[in-house]
Amino acid sequence: MQCNFSEKSLISLLKKHFGYKSFRPGQLQVIESVLSGNDTLAVMPTGGGKSLCCQLPALVLKGITIVVSPLIALMQDQVSQLEEAGIEALFLNSSLTLDQYSLNTSLIRGGKVKIVYCAPETLVTERMQQLLANVQVSLLTIDEAHCISEWGHDFRPEYRMIASVRAQHPEAVCLAMTATATQTVRNDIKRSLKLGSKTFGFGFNEFVSTFNRPNIFLEVKSKAGSVQNAAALLKKPTNFRLTRADELLLEFLQAHKNESGIIYCFSRKQVDELTEFLQEQNYKALAYHAGLSDTERAENQRLFVQDEVPIIVATLAFGMGINKPNVRFVVHYDMPKSLEQYYQEIGRAGRDGENAHALLLYSYGDTNKIRFFMQDKTGTELAAAENQLEAMTAFAQSRTCRRSLLLAHFGEPPAESNPEFCCDICSSGLNAAELETDVTIPAQKLLSAILRTGEKFGASYVIDVLLGSRQKRILDYGHNKLSVFGIGTEFSKQDWYQLVNLLIDAGFLRKSSDYQVLSLTRDAKDTLRDRGEVRLPFVPHTNAPAQTQKSGKAGSYKRILDSSDIKGMAILEALKEMRRKLAKEAEVPPYVIFGDRTLEDIAIKKPVVFSQLTDIYGIGEIKAERYGDFIISIVREHQT
């Protein structure tokens, strides 16, 4: 499958339908690969423009493009935006009535549609395959492709079934897209979908864009310990039993007044309690989790994306289908189970290129909660979950640049960044060397404990020995009789984990990739024998330095509408009201009509004739025709 195209023609389509004059980094290469008839794996950051990589080829290719998507909300959002861009698209899922489903299938048979969205379980049904047997499928796109891999953070067995569908449509090139995939996961995706295999005769290209989101400030705060100054932060007296996490959250929200954000919690119960508390404190917040009714969940999501409620408190069930560009912060009230999950969720902030803030509240208790839900896993799935949790814990406990650590996890070297707007470690002005302290004694204790237990156990077990735990396994092995038993009570389990990770980074310890077993390197044995000094950036949580965020500037786009431009500010407010009304009439989120950046560009450039509209960011021919009269009338009204 190949077709004629040129970069000039692709940019023309881009401008006409989406209102952009150029592609984002990585988009053009992926699009050209697909149109040249190559199976393609595209790893691009959340908010990096993955969707366009299948939507634009769909306009060039004959027949239809199938997009496999995991969430109904994601399908609805994408279809709404495509319809606004003048592109024929629809979805097939359980939210449709029988009549709507029948109408959509007749449109597909009649060749009236370019893009069809469906869930993996829908794609593999006999009814769906009978429908597709009579139409030309030119492109099969798998969104959130990491769900295919057992090594991925969000493995879904139904995604494995997609491979069988490829055989029924050998003429369709395959595009797999994800924002979160390590090399192991990428290899699994390629193997599962047979990308570039002789079976289908297509070539294969793999594109891995930068994982760096420089406009998102990364911060971690310990939520262990007692409440310090919560009373001063409360807007009303409360009967809720406040924790240190609540106090830190209130501090954060006061610093981000009138901003839109998402707060992620581990459980539904925590979501409900935190939402009730925030509402009591006069914050406009709503809950979102699978325990709510479909109607309530949909309404809460609608109010959030419509900018009527600024804060949503949610489990991880929320956000994958949301393309809200003006989310200014993401707070993790509890630690995620993996860096992949963390990266995906913080990526829901700052999609408009403006500065955003990601705050993670962490305590060692979070790891225990996550491990409890890992009990039913076995084999490869358990090993993957352990690896993911270890990496997430190391990130939370890090005393070195968090951005560099996050990028390294995905196999990417450190990126140049503004130290004041990178992470809490960098902005504090304390680098690793300045934080280094003499940890010779605790390091000797830890290394000795690993040696004396035979270098056969992981960090959790060794730390339990140091803390004097009398769990059955320790007693059965007789390790309660070792000289190292109970000699580490000066530190918490959280602090010992931090020291383990620092010793691994410094080359003193190795950790096996399968069962996470710790063993000493030659340097560690020499240091232990010679009683050499060990200096590391180890800061027990009770002695951690206060870290404050400094204001910084980052990101590809900054608001440049001068507040002294009275006419411009008036135009902007009128445009927002126009957008709100149009969105309500069309029953779509406001950003589907126009993003904030587009409205601000109008307020700055103040177009008064139709020909000036297509010079506005995000306005192509389709939207200029549809909304041009509204825009020009508003600008002219405020120019007089």
Mean pLDDT: 86
Morphology call: globular
State the CATH class of the largest domain. Alpha Beta
State the domain count: 4
Radius of gyration: 27 Å
Which class of secondary structure composition applies to the elements? alpha/beta
For the largest beta-sheet, the strand count, sense and barrel status come to: 7 strands, parallel
Task: Please outline what is shown here.
The protein is built from 27 helices and 17 strands. The protein has a seven-stranded parallel sheet with strand order 3-4-2-5-6-1-7, with helices on both faces.
Primary descriptors:
six-stranded parallel β-sheet, 4 domains, alpha/beta, Rossmann fold, 640 residues, 12% strand, 27 helices, Arc Repressor Mutant, subunit A
Give the SSE map:
Layout: H1 7-18, H2 27-35, E1 38-43, H3 52-60, E2 64-68, H4 72-84, E3 89-92, H5 98-109, E4 115-118, H6 120-123, H7 126-132, E5 137-142, H8 162-168, E6 173-178, H9 183-193, E7 203-208, E8 216-222, H10 244-255, E9 260-264, H11 268-280, E10 285-288, H12 294-305, E11 311-314, E12 327-332, H13 339-346, E13 356-362, H14 364-372, H15 379-397, H16 402-409, H17 424-427, H18 432-435, E14 437-438, H19 440-452, H20 459-466, H21 472-477, H22 493-505, E15 509-511, E16 518-520, H23 522-530, E17 535-536, H24 566-586, H25 590-593, H26 596-605, H27 621-639
Helix pairs in contact: 2-3, 19-20, 20-22, 24-26, 24-27
